[in-house]
Specification:
499 residues, alpha/beta, Rossmann fold, 8-stranded mixed beta sheet, binds uridine-5'-diphosphate-glucose, Glycosyltransferase, transferase, quercetin 3-O-glucosyltransferase activity, UDP_glycos_trans_CS
């Protein structure tokens, strides 16, 4: 058997690198060698934040290897500096990334160990084009829900005007869009924010547009999706001219019951920032299902006013909490000292008597703790999947990108959480935060009728079990991934036989 070789390339943000790293391990476990290609700046950031160089190679028990390769982006090897020219950065990353892919592919062909496929994630349509130019098969790894993929698909296939109409600020709150084959009704806040023409980041939509142009050149392209069949059965089947294949949840398998050194390797809780705080010990000292975990991912910063409301909400709710407030870090990964001094929360002392504030934590470890009762999350897809796979009910507190759609799925489809309602100025007030926390963590029965809390906990347990089933031997994602790799193995064998 010839072991197929795959290149995996991802946008260098943590929410993109995390699932892609987990995917590289799953591919290796299924019998492929993987080259993980990232910009030098991302590799440096990993080394600096964890205090050590990530291992250049990780070997799976079956002998497959995950290795890192880097490429330099002219002028940006220390990363993109705030205030820089984002368009120039993007075009340089594209130029240097495409060149790096070509060089890897050509040199592997010359060495007689050619690559079988290029796998790339969001915002990198150029990667698909480069593979096509090189005559190399390519597959996209979609790291958001299948439902979000479908919405983008429809946006570029006849429903753009309807969606833009629904997104307009003057559209009535009741104005909703339905889309083919999806049983949901989407209001403005349920649709990806980049579709809003007034959004500051609306330019991002052009990456998705280019991606769908790449798909048009392919015959029924396959898209591997970080979800699982049971979670999004309808959405995975909604679009017939593309094939969506669930291979998730892409969280470290050590947290899905399988334990072993390989399951814990390449675990981004380690290779990104590491917090020295003793939060795991603190969590273990708390009563079961009583702690509120609050975190808004790796990118999002709320304005001071919103942070104060969250703080008041937590204080009035009165239960212990673990809150991640990320320190602002510069490109050299040094803490940026707050020169204005106005960022400090007014009630920090009171907060620290009730709970714990940390600059970072190993989120999957935290979500695995028995003391957790609820996750207040921005609904980034990784956080959402991690919470589902670890059985933690949520208060959905979305801001942008796919998060509104994810919040809708949490509240209406999977029924494992409630979504906050911002006021007219877009601020979620402390009373509203307390109301949502009470719904998720409050009393257990209401006049003998099962409470919202009990329903959410029951559903959280159900999805946790289904998530685990899906990645176990014989589970849906396990089989889908095996079939994908088996095809690559077959093709690599055939080519080597012909040579
Ligand atoms: O203290 C922390 C906070 C976060 N994380 C991890 O960081 C990742 C965060 O990913 P995600 O929840 O997806 O949030 P973002 O970092 O905001 O991700 C971006 O990318 C995602 C994937 O495309 C999108 O779904 C989000 O909307 C987008 O903001 C997760 O794996 C978390 O476990 C930690 O380990 N420790």
């Amino acid at each position: 058997m010839v072991r197929p070789r795959l290149i995996l390339i991802t946008y260098p943000a943590q929410g993109h690198i995390n699932p892609t790293l987990q995917f590289s391990k799953r591919l290796a476990a299924a019998g492929a060698d993987v080259t993980f290609l990232i910009p030098l700046s991302a590799r440096r950031r990993m080394a600096m934040s964890s205090g050590r160089e990530p291992d250049p190679e990780t070997v799976a028990p079956n002998g497959s290897v995950v290795s890192f390769a880097t490429f330099s982006v002219d002028g940006y090897d220390d990363g993109f500096k705030p205030g820089g020219d984002i368009k120039h950065y993007t075009s340089e990353t594209m130029r240097c990334g495409a060149q790096a892919v070509s060089e890897l592919v050509v040199s592997a062909r010359n060495d007689g160990r050619p690559y079988s496929c290029l796998i790339y994630t969001l915002l990198l349509p150029w990667a698909g084009l480069t593979a096509e130019e090189l005559g190399l098969p390519s597959v996209m790894l979609w790291i958001q829900p299948a439902t979000v993929f479908d919405v983008y698909y429809y946006y570029f296939h006849g429903y753009g005007d309807i969606i833009r109409e629904t997104m307009k600020r003057q559209a009535s709150a009741a104005s909703k869009t339905t889309l083919p084959e999806l049983s949901l009704e989407f209001a403005r806040g349920d649709l990806p924010s980049f579709m809003d023409e007034e959004d500051t980041f609306s330019f991002v939509i052009s990456f998705f547009e280019e991606q769908f142009e790449v798909f048009k050149k392919m015959n029924r392209p396959r898209i591997l999706v970080n979800t699982f069949d049971e979670l999004e059965a309808e959405a995975l089947r909604a679009v017939s001219d593309l094939s969506l294949i669930g291979i998730g949840p892409l969280i470290p398998s050590a947290f899905l019951d399988e334990k072993g050194p390989f399951d814990m390797s390449l675990f981004s809780g380690d290779i990104f920032r590491r917090s020295e705080d003793k939060y795991i010990e603190w969590l273990n000292s708390q009563p079961k299902a009583k702690v509120v975990y609050v975190s808004f991912g790796s990118l999002l910063d709320w304005p001071k006013q919103q942070m104060e409301e969250i703080a008041r909400g937590l204080l009035t709710f009165g239960r212990p909490f673990l809150w991640v407030i990320r320190e602002k870090v510069g490109n050299d990964n040094e803490k940026v000292e707050n020169d204005k001094g106005d960022e400090e929360l007014s009630c920090r002392e009171e907060l620290e008597k009730l709970g714990m504030i940390v600059p970072w934590c190993s989120q999957v470890e935290v979500l695995s703790s028995e003391s957790l009762g609820c996750f207040v999350t921005h609904c980034g897809w990784n956080s959402t999947l991690e919470s589902l796979a670890l059985g933690v009910p949520m208060v959905a507190f979305p801001k942008w990108a796919d998060q509104g759609t994810n919040a809708k799925l949490i509240e209406e489809v999977w029924k494992t959480g409630v979504r906050v309602k911002p006021n007219e100025d877009g601020i979620v007030q402390s009373e509203e935060i307390k109301r949502c926390l009470e719904l998720v963590m409050g009393g257990s029965t209401e006049n003998g009728v099962e409470s919202g809390k009990a329903i959410m906990r029951r559903n959280a347990k159900k999805w946790k079990e289904l998530a685990r089933e899906s990645v176990k031997e014989g589970g849906s994602s396990y089989k889908n991934l095996k079939a994908f790799v088996a095809e690559m193995i077959h093709e690599a064998d055939r080519k080597s036989f012909l040579e």
